[in-house]
Amino acid sequence: MTAHENSVNMKRTAYHHGDLAASLLAEGLRALDAQSAETISLRALARAVGVSATSVYRHFPDREALLSALAREGARRLSRAQREAFERAGGGRPGFAATGRAYVRFALANPSLFRLIFTAALTEQDNGFAQRRTDAVLDITAEFAGPRDRVEAIRDWALIHGLVMLMLDGQVPVDDALIERIIGGPA
């Protein structure tokens, strides 16, 4: 029997996917565009990228590990969107307001990913991801808004995050004028 035959003499082809972990993350992010994190399945992602379900476990030992990786990628994307908004606005107070608008817009454009960013860490044991995420948001607040104490930074974050959640949950209409009035600064 050759290396490309199995015990029942069926030909099999050598398969090399490339960067399977990256492909699974990309497919997971696409899936989050259409569904909630609760419905994401490792088997479905494996089918979507054309690999066996068992090959997924080499990169993500369970569903929670995949969701954790998706949450970390989402947090990186949110942070990048805020940083870019700050720079486009020219920094200072207008830049800080732009980071708030970027936060809201990111959440409204990526509701499942946004929710996952803030819920995945509640069940994971990923070397303090939740604390690092919180520290990163507060560091961004301090960097963009100038020197502020931690309580004031948390107050700013709570206001914007609360607005997002009210909009995502349909309690408050998604309204650009309302976002502007709450966040302030030039659009």
Automatic annotation (TrEMBL):
Residues 41-60 bind DNA. Gene3D superfamilies: Tetracycline Repressor, domain 2. GO terms for molecular function: DNA-binding transcription factor activity; transcription cis-regulatory region binding. The keyword Transcription applies. This is WHG domain-containing protein. Keywords: DNA-binding, Transcription, Transcription regulation. SUPFAM superfamilies: Homeodomain-like, Tetracyclin repressor-like, C-terminal domain. InterPro entries: Homeodomain-like_sf, HTH-type_TetR-like_transc_reg, HTH_TetR, MT1864/Rv1816-like_C, Tet_transcr_reg_TetR-rel_C_sf. Residues 18-78 form the HTH tetR-type domain.
